[in-house]
Amino acid sequence: MGRLDGKVAIVTGAARGHAETVAIFFAKEGAAVSICDVIPVNQLDNSVGAEIRAAGGKVICFQTDVSKEDQVHKMVRETIKRFGTVHILANVVGIAGPTKDIWDMSLAEWKQTLDVNLDSAFLCSKTVLPEMIKNKYGKIINFSSGTGKQPLTHRAPYATSKMAIIGFTRTLAADVGRYNINVNAICPGGHQERSLELARGRAQYMNKPLDDEAFRKQFQADQNDPKRILAGRWSADEGYLEKGSGPEDAAKLAVFLASDDASSITGQDINTGGGVMW
Length: 278
Description:
8 helices, about 45% helix
């Protein structure tokens, strides 16, 4: 028996990283999952979709730009047609956005980051909520960031979008609690490809070179550094580093929040960053 047996979940941005892992974990716990990304649908279906099916799960894949209302409506409509309803929505999709000072940033760059990171959560929630309200049951899980609670220099649109996700989560939780719908946010740790994106942006901003392969090797080595401990930043003067966390940590929390075990938890923003305490 899985904790999500009989449930139907939508997971956005599922081609990689946190969202990919969330989709796989949901399916392992018994949920039928509808996953989407902007990559070609056959590419998503042959990778993440194939992995879910190989493990005995049910999955349907979509090529969807979740910042576009018509595409979101189509995905939700087809999900309900195929699986009967929607119980769980995981708004995981996100982009790093530009690493620039705002006076050097275009309005288009600003808007693109908020469109993908924030508007998508609004559009997907708005579209699934009538079904959840009808059922008087639902779980919405939004992905914010540690940056949702503290500044990140030269990354104003990303920080703004992640801080806004927390406000959106709390307000929506207050609005829909009467319908037995829980809304929570996860502030996850990093994953290799997103960390590489951030490092590239930082290097470009500082006019310094970055060796992608060397970064990946160092990232992997760092995970096994014996000096990496929980809440390590508070012991930095003793030579310790933050332990950090990855997609599996966030996915385990997402499963819990999507399950009936978390029926009384709503409006929360929970860190899984290995000791981040903001």
